[in-house]
Design goal:
Structural class: alpha+beta
CATH class: Alpha Beta
CATH superfamily: Creatinase/methionine aminopeptidase superfamily
Oligomer: single chain
CATH topology: Creatine Amidinohydrolase
Helix content: 25-40%
Number of domains: 1
Largest sheet: 5 strands, antiparallel
Length: 248
């Protein structure tokens, strides 16, 4: 549970996250090297008075996770150059005044096919469907069910092996927030909770594998994946997307 002041700090932390993600999205173009985007995220974060949250977290070697095409999450930026039509998921977090911010978005490089746009649109909409359920009295699985129902009604699948989470003074706090499940289960939501809700949606099967680097998660069938995430505060009335003030 977070106080009003703590949520205010987390709102600022997430505003920095959204500002960095916006700058990275604007920089996407054919030929751009993923490692350069990582350096850019690191520099912008320090300039904003925060620290990248992911670098060194359980040994993760970069400041941002960048996952391309069939990579679902936790892609490590390196020497790979982007190509026209690549689907790029940017997942980023910061630490600001002792609290974490965390968000993700999926973008496309240059021109794209219709199905790539549909995958992104459905994933983003499923996040908003989940957020609508982040209200006092509901349960965690009401969020989960709303995401799954929307995604599967459009012919896509939700990843089972990786889930959303609470967030605050730690990057990952209870409760876990799956993107699948029947409604009416799990902890009851209360004002003061802050939840990182993050659907990961695959074109094909929900099954995933992990690369030999121990981090990069990709679809087992080689089809594409999209990922959107907001940190959301549960309030006595409407759910609030933290950091959204003009930058989300």
């Amino acid at each position: 549970m977070k106080s009003a002041e703590e949520i205010r700090i987390m709102d600022r932390a997430n505003a920095i996250v959204h500002q960095v993600l916006g700058a990275l999205e604007a920089a996407l173009a054919p030929g751009v090297v993923l490692g350069d985007l990582d350096h850019m995220a690191h520099s912008l974060t320090l300039s904003a008075g925060a620290k990248p949250a992911f670098k060194g977290y359980h040994g993760y070697p970069a400041s941002i996770c960048i996952s391309v095409n069939d990579e679902v999450v936790h892609g490590i930026p390196g020497g790979r150059a982007l190509k026209q039509g690549d689907l790029v998921s940017l997942d980023f977090g910061v630490v600001f005044q002792g609290f974490y911010g965390d968000a993700a978005r999926t973008c496309v490089v240059g021109s794209h096919d219709v199905e790539a746009r549909r995958l992104m649109d459905v994933t983003r909409a499923s996040l908003m469907k989940g957020i609508e359920q982040a209200r006092p009295g509901n349960r965690v699985s009401d969020i989960s069910h709303a995401v799954q129902a929307w995604v599967e009604s459009h012919g896509f699948s939700v990843v089972r092996d990786y889930v959303g989470h609470g967030i605050g003074r730690a990057l990952h706090e209870d409760p876990q927030i799956p993107n699948f499940g029947e409604p009416g289960h799990g902890p009851r939501l209360q004002p003061g909770m802050v939840l990182a809700i993050e659907p990961m949606v695959n074109e094909g099967s929900f099954e995933v594998t992990v690369d030999e680097d121990g981090w990069t998660v990709r679809t087992k069938d080689g089809l594409r994946s999209a990922h959107f995430e907001y940190s959301v505060a549960v309030t006595p009335s409407e759910p609030v997307i933290l950091g959204a003030g003009g930058t989300a």
